[in-house]
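Lecture 7, part B: from sequences to assemblies.

Below are the input chains for today's worked example.
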Amino acid sequence: MTTQPDGLVERMQSGEINAFEEFFNTYRRPVYTTALAITRDPFLAEEILQDCFVKAYRVRHRLWRDVSPLPWLQRVTTNLCYSRISRRRRTFAEPLTTLIINIVADLTSRPEQVVESREIIEVLQRGIDALPPKQQTAIILYYLHGYSLAEAAEIAQCNVGTMKSRLHYALKALRSLVPAERRASAPNARLAADELS
Amino acid sequence: MSCHKVARELIERFHFGPLDRRSVPHLEHLETCAPCREEVGLDRAFVHQLQRALRERVDAVEPSPDAWTIVRQRAMAEPTESTGWRSWLLGLGQGLRVAGAGAVIALTIVLSRAQMDVPQQGPPPQTLGRLGHIEVASFVPPGGIIWPIGDPYKPPKPIGPATGLARFAQSMSLVALVEPVALQAGMMQ
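Predicted structure of the full complex, as structure tokens:
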């Protein structure tokens, strides 16, 4: 997890605008990445980034001085994302199977291996979008940011076991979208198997 | 050791924890078992694909260069949250407001339930007409539902306002019809 520069929160709390700028520059990338990974909309992600830091400045006196504010920022970001996209998610009525069929149909004219790999990635993207928010957050924190189970659990305000369970169910849902024979035909499947032997 | 168990445990280890001494027998099994190798390899490939899919969502996209300027302007424009005892007092006031609202709602529910439990008593019977020494009467409880007097041995059944009004009109017309005849016949005074 990004470490907090010495006394940064303290300086920000005393009203130093330079400290706030440093705070913004230190944490903007992980916050923006999370917002973008969830929303897949750069403009919306930018708005969420702004909202998150404006909120951080407003409540700066409540931030702990000796603890990294990143888990809190990530939590605010995920909450903002899901409150913003909830309306859009409710209107997402097209069944996933139809989407997958469409993707497969659209990619039939490309070279086979590239198509296969591209297709799997697209199916996974749709699958990630369709995951329940808590599982989606778990996947993003653990597999994109590379937080440990404990760190991801801290951000999501749950225990490690719950985080593990969310990841397990998310992976199960995503695996079910990509049949084993397709996974095997992907270029890196053989590499991964060889890596283990 | 079953193949399924080995593959499942190794996949779990690869996902959530570092391989340690306990994983040695599993890895030894993996070296000799092609199906297990295949299964674990598929899972590793799947994780690679998942990570690639996630990275594609965020790669090569950065916040706009003027993000800081906007954040700064907005942060300066918004009031800072109060600190120390002021914040505590504000929080207390807010808490009291919420508690007060909750108490009012609870009291309203309790009172409305208590009122529902009180047996409804209708007003005294109103004489609607007189046929000889028989009174045509109805209870008209609040709400406009007319409780007609029927068989005294049966509890009255509630009827709707429309039916009540119809019966009332019927009884009045009956009185209007019968009264002149009865007067002529000397049955009524």
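Note for the exam: The CA atoms of residues 145 and 162 of chain B lie 9 Å apart. Keep this in mind when comparing with the next example.
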